[in-house]
From TrEMBL:
Residues 252-268 have a biased composition (Acidic residues). This is Major facilitator superfamily (MFS) profile domain-containing protein. It is a multi-pass membrane protein. It comes from Streptomyces cacaoi. The lineage of its organism: Bacteria, Bacillati, Actinomycetota, Actinomycetes, Kitasatosporales. GO terms for cellular component: plasma membrane.
């Protein structure tokens, strides 16, 4: 039986911060104040294994390259190319579908071949797509280029996200940061890219859109080279990477003992026990599984079949994971209101959308600065399920604030205060809900299905967003009072919190349970 990436054992201090904090406390006393918290956040990043830091930098680069180009695509299509509004919407919709809708494909490929080839293929596609988009002039070429750009993300995003989650679990089991803090670093890096990318794009557009496309492509050239040289090869949970492919990782990256190779790496009894706690499966059983995998071509073929058909069946039968997808989908419906409901509120209050850019910058900058402190102060003191539900509750409060202020009819700069509070609360809820969701995935699915599951999380949630956005648009078009619409929107994350409460991860295996029969 394939092991699950189990939750934190109750007897372990990892994730609670008790013994881990005392061990580090002897080296340096905790600092207080804003500078001290910022220094601790930088320490969290420096304390990660080199491979995990590479993954975080990858997410930063992904978003810088993406947001340097895509926010300005609609203006390029409608202005420079003269496309009609419906055609611009179609092109943007096809890009979104080719990305979110096909995440599950990238996840399945990651489980089958490992993250390295999938990430490299995605980078090549993104480079080709951006260059093609910069030179495309007719509708067919533009559609082909944006589909290429979108499908590239459907490949590398689930590969990087699943590998980050896997490494976060291994780092936690080895006595490092709690997995939620490692995943928070990943989220903060992505938001930093979302903040810096549009600024880079604004500067590049002083030349033209083609220059911005070339700059975005060059960012992905850098990512491609870095992963070609530094990313280990091999399938998730499989054998040790081939020599020369894991120079960034080594033992610190969790590519040795935690893959069942501890006995050969000289980790001894302590390494074996740590591996048992991390996976819920004994080293004896995992060694037997490895020998069976290496035995015959028939066993390998069986594994390939499981990676294609069996993984879909197992996912559809995983009730807690599907509930998590629905709960996370309600968060994405709420987050999507930054592009649907929030612009309408800003226009109502000020008469223009000029304040939107500042609100978006506020959201991204807040995540960059506060993600790690929030995770450390709140997220690590709560179970992942509780952190998810609390985050969704905070998001719902953000909608309730606008609903309560709408009857007052505030205008001008004062009228943007409810919108700013909405963005602040939505962002704080995001900082709790997103790392908790990714951590819960590692508790609900088997390790060798982690890539597919990360892709399925995005794909299922994307379908929820599609239906939720259509319903929201219908509400605003019906002439209903803004207070009523925002109150109904507040109910969406509350529904997600109720669904989240029903997600019950399996109990982690006891360290002394012995081999699995």
């Amino acid at each position: 039986m394939s092991p699950r990436l189990c939750g934190r054992p109750r007897s372990s201090s990892v994730g609670r911060g008790a013994e881990a904090s005392s061990e580090r406390g002897a080296e340096a006393p905790p600092r207080r104040g804003g500078i001290g918290r910022f220094g601790r956040s930088l320490g969290d990043v420096r304390g990660l294994p080199p491979f995990v830091r590479l993954l975080a930098w990858t997410q930063l680069a992904f978003n810088i390259g993406f947001f340097a180009v895509l926010p300005y695509l609609a203006e390029h299509l409608g202005g420079a190319l003269g496309m009609g509004g419906w055609l611009v919407g179609l092109v943007l919709g096809l890009r979104t579908f080719s990305q979110q809708g096909l995440f599950v494909v990238g996840g399945a490929l990651t489980d089958r071949f490992g993250p390295r080839p999938v990430v490299l293929a995605g980078c090549v596609l993104r480079i080709a797509g951006f260059v093609w988009l910069g030179y495309a002039r007719d509708t067919v070429q533009v559609i082909a280029a944006v589909v290429c750009v979108g499908f590239a993300a459907a490949l590398f995003s689930p590969a990087v996200e699943s590998e980050t989650a896997r490494q976060a679990v291994r780092f936690e089991a080895a006595g490092g940061h709690p997995r939620a803090r490692t995943l928070a670093v990943f989220s903060a890096a992505g938001q930093a890219g979302a903040f810096l990318g549009p600024l880079l794009g604004t500067l590049l557009l002083l030349a033209d859109f083609r220059t911005a496309c070339w700059a975005g492509a060059l960012v992905f050239v850098g990512v491609l080279v870095a992963h070609w040289r530094r990313m280990p090869a091999g399938r998730p949970g499989g054998s040790t990477p081939r020599p020369g492919t894991g120079s960034a990782g080594g033992a610190d990256d969790g590519e040795g003992a935690d893959d069942g190779e501890g006995a050969d790496d000289g980790e001894g009894a302590e390494g074996a026990k740590a591996a048992e706690r991390a996976t819920g499966t004994s080293v004896t059983q995992r060694t037997a599984d490895a020998k069976a995998t290496e035995g015959t071509g028939t066993t390998e073929a069986t594994g390939a079949t499981d990676a294609t058909g069996g993984v879909v069946r197992a996912t559809l039968c995983n009730g807690p994971f599907l509930l998590l997808c629905l709960a996370y989908g309600t968060y994405l419906v709420a987050y999507n209101q930054l592009y649907l409901a929030l612009p309408q509120e800003v226009v109502r209050a000020t008469g223009s959308q000029s304040a939107l850019g500042w609100l978006f910058a506020l959201s991204s900058l807040l995540v960059v600065v506060a993600q790690l402190p929030v995770t450390r102060a709140v997220g690590e003191r709560l179970r992942h399920r509780t952190a998810l539900c609390l985050g969704l509750g905070v998001v719902a409060l953000g909608f309730a604030v606008v609903a309560a202020a709408a009857p007052l009819g505030l205008r001008g700069p004062v009228g943007t205060v409810p919108a700013a509070l909405h963005v602040l609360l939505l962002t704080f809820g995001q900082m709790l809900a997103v790392p908790a969701t990714r951590a819960l995935v590692t508790e609900l699915v088997a390790e060798h299905r982690l890539g597919f599951s990360m892709g399925a999380l995005s794909s299922v949630s994307g379908l929820v967003v599609l239906g939720g956005s259509a319903a929201t648009g219908a509400l605003f078009g019906s002439g209903a009072a803004p207070a009523a619409v925002w109150a109904l929107l507040a109910c969406v994350p509350l529904l997600g919190a109720a669904l989240g409460r029903t997600v019950r991860p399996p109990r982690p295996a006891r360290a002394d349970a012995g081999p699995v029969d």
